[in-house]
Design a protein that fits this description.
The protein has 320 residues and is mainly α. Helix content is 77%, strand content 0%. It has 18 helices and no strands. Helix 9 packs antiparallel against helix 10 (169-181).
Length: 320
């Protein structure tokens, strides 16, 4: 009996030893030059070039799960989500990092509006993650999902946990957005300002502060941040529309028209810009032009926002 057990124990040891030989850690893998080039281009946000390199890498005989994980990330960055999912499956088949794969599946589910499924994948990812950087990213993503699900308490908790690992701009912007959704605007402003102390060119922070100061009817301060945003993206339809709206509220109608017209040149179907230009035209007693713009605002989708002030204005000022 003891001989039988000993013989089978030896067989088991041999099997484990053989299996161990085929378990290769990421640090022991020799990735191809094409994979390395793809990773470099991906980190530089050159996604088309990154995709070309990773496709070359995958065409080789020897491929690793990391190749498919990277291609999935590239597809997500390029908003080609339907192509990212099969690569997640392939990475899983090849024994890829479960936490990273679940994180990517969550990102795909999130953009599809499947917030509950995204949350499920993120919970799975957190149960398996060991890398601190990836854990931080997962917590930020779960916080973002929580905000969309209006689970504010848990979302803010996740974002603060993420910030305790690493105070990244992405985490700070999501936390500020969370406080905005909770109408804690002063907290949001402080965080956006904190972002700008580290990165004065953060377009999102300038835009968010513009919106918050418009909400407070502090148009002088709003104009300051809007102009900063305009220096970063001079052609932005959204920025120019905001500047035009701010000038309208200040009473500077010529500059208001200049910026709203610039907004409409960039985005000819910007229904908010048509509404704002109508407001300016009413102030200038150009009623016919104002009514035309109100009609265009509705024509291009303003009523789909479930706001009916344009319709009410049109009925009151334009219908005979």
């Amino acid at each position: 009996m003891n001989q039988y057990i000993t013989r089978h124990a030896r067989v088991f040891i041999i099997i484990v030893a053989v299996c161990t030989c085929f378990t290769v850690s990421a640090k022991d893998k020799k990735f191809s030059a094409e994979y390395t080039a793809a990773l470099e281009k991906y980190n530089a946000h050159a996604y088309e070039k990154a995709l070309a390199h990773i496709n070359e890498a995958i065409s080789d005989e020897k491929v690793f799960a990391e190749y498919f994980i990277l291609r999935s990330e590239i597809y997500i960055a390029m908003e080609k989500y339907e192509k990212a999912v099969p690569d997640c499956y392939k990475a899983k088949e090849l024994g890829g990092n479960d936490a990273k794969i679940n994180y990517l599946r969550a990102k795909i589910s999130f953009v599809s509006g499947n917030y509950g499924i995204a949350q499920m994948f993120l919970n799975k990812a957190l149960n398996k993650v060991s890398n601190k950087t990836l854990k931080q990213q997962i917590l930020v993503e779960r916080g973002k999902v929580g905000l969309y699900m209006q689970d504010f308490q848990n979302a803010i908790g996740d974002l603060n946990l993420a910030l305790a690992i690493d105070s990244t701009q992405h985490a700070l912007l999501n936390l500020a957005h969370g406080y905005t959704l909770m109408d804690e605007n002063e907290k949001a402003k402080q965080i956006y300002k904190l972002v700008l102390t580290d990165d004065t060119s953060c377009f999102k922070a300038h835009m968010a502060l513009t919106e918050l100061h418009i909400k407070d009817e502090n148009f002088v301060k709003a104009l300051e941040y809007a102009k900063n945003a305009c220096q970063i993206d001079e052609q932005s339809a959204v920025v120019n529309n905001y500047i035009g709206y701010i000038y309208y509220n200040i009473g500077n109608y010529p500059d208001a028209l200049t910026h709203i017209n610039k907004s409409l040149k960039t985005d000819p179907e910007n229904f908010n810009a048509f509404k704002n230009r109508a407001l300016v035209f009413f102030k200038l007693n150009a009623v016919s032009k104002a009514c035309d713009d109100l009609f265009r605002s509705m024509q291009f989708g303003y009523l789909e926002t479930k706001q009916y002030d344009v319709l009410d204005m049109y009925k009151e000022e334009c219908e005979l």
